[in-house]
Amino acid sequence: MVNIPGIADADLEPDPLDPAQIVSGEPVVTGKVLWESPDGRQIRGIWQITPGVVTDTEANELFVVVSGRATIEVEGGSVLEVGPGDACVLREGDRTQWTVHETLRKAYHISL
């Protein structure tokens, strides 16, 4: 069981983006792993990104937006508008483009 009341920005650790992922702006990524299974195949945590546009190749992930707003375009698929309280499932291998309109913070669970 993990209970972490109110994670402040200062509690998040830098998670630098590969410069090749940045399409526009100067987005900064931070995060914190809250739990990881003994075999490393399940990870839960908090992730945050400041405004900008970035690309990514996704893992199997369920996340809930805690704050902020973004548009996620899945290559060859959906366009998702996400904001506080929205839940989203991403599939391993999906190529995405994230347009972050307001600093986005999400709680996530990744299955590797």
Instruction: Specify the structural class.
Output: mainly beta
Number of helices: 0
Mean pLDDT: 95
Order of helices and strands: EEEEEEEEE
Beta-strand residue fraction: over 45%
> For the terminal residues, how far apart are their CA atoms?
21 Å
Low-pLDDT residue spans = none
Which geometry do the CA atoms define? globular
Q: Please estimate the helix content.
A: under 10%
Largest sheet: 9 strands, antiparallel
| Backbone CA Rg | 14 Å
Would you mind describing this structure in some detail?
The protein has about 110 residues and is mainly β. It has strands at about 15, 20-25, 30-35, 40-50, 50-55, 60-75, 80, 85-90, 95-110. Strands 1, 2, 3, 4, 5, 6, 7, 8 and 9 form a 9-stranded antiparallel sheet that branches. A hairpin with a 4-residue loop joins strand 6 (about 60-75) and strand 7 (about 80). The protein is globular and about 35 Å long. The two termini are about 20 Å apart. The mean pLDDT is about 95.
